[in-house]
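Reading a protein record of the kind used here takes only a little practice. An example makes this concrete, so a full record is given next.
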Amino acid sequence: MPELPEVETVARGVDQHLRGDRIVRVWLTDLPQPFKTPPARMGKVLAGRAILAVHRTGKHIVFELSAPGEKSAPATAQWIVHLGMTGRLLVAESEQPLAPHTHARLGMASGRELRFVDPRRFGRLQFLDLGRTQPFQAPGAEPLTIGAQPFAALFGGRKTAIKAALLNQTLLSGVGNIYADESLFRAGIRPSRRANRLTGAELERLRQALRQILKRAIRLGGSSVSDYVDADGERGFFQLEHCVYQRTGQPCRHCQTPIRRILLAGRGTHYCPKCQH
């Protein structure tokens, strides 16, 4: 599943291409799809709106939309995209061939199209009328901006393994398996340790490591370990710098000890038994 760096990369790419453009036509699949807004309604309410901005909130891509026929702020609606396990959000010229498993197409006034491609159909699309509901918010804190004290308060009293706590989206929004493993490695913390057994210094080291890893991954366009590509269909490069994730049996880049894989809270978890304590 795309995590924070991948979603941030896609959101930035779509914003760069489509900010200020207008949605003039909408096509949505008639296949069973877990859209949170019925397709018939979504098609009607999206058409005619300008895209004022596109940004990431947690693991969601949020489109700020004008009123129909308007071109400027304030936003009166939001379109929320969650990529699910295999979703892609691509900006393409209208004459480009459609990728298999394309389930949504937004035709723009510029002639370009925004296409939602999702082989496994776990992605979600939702329309929010800001006159009737609050703007979209992620369930947990933002990992890139959370301070030292709030971070320690989130994890310091929890008896679960720190890896499982990092994956809890109601605590932090956007961190998944890749970046939990990589951040714990950088912080030198074994993923199976109970969160409430970590010292204040260790929690702060983890917070800093998490921010560093996420920012580096964003700069490199995310990790392409399966289906992920950015809004232009290009792969990311951070997977080339993974130290532990999916490197089972390979030598640690720091100490040459073979990387181990265990199941933790039902998730494959990778760590160095020498570097992480």
The first strand starts at residue 23 and ends at 28. The domain at 4-129 is CATH 3.20.190.10 (N-terminal domain of MutM-like DNA repair proteins).
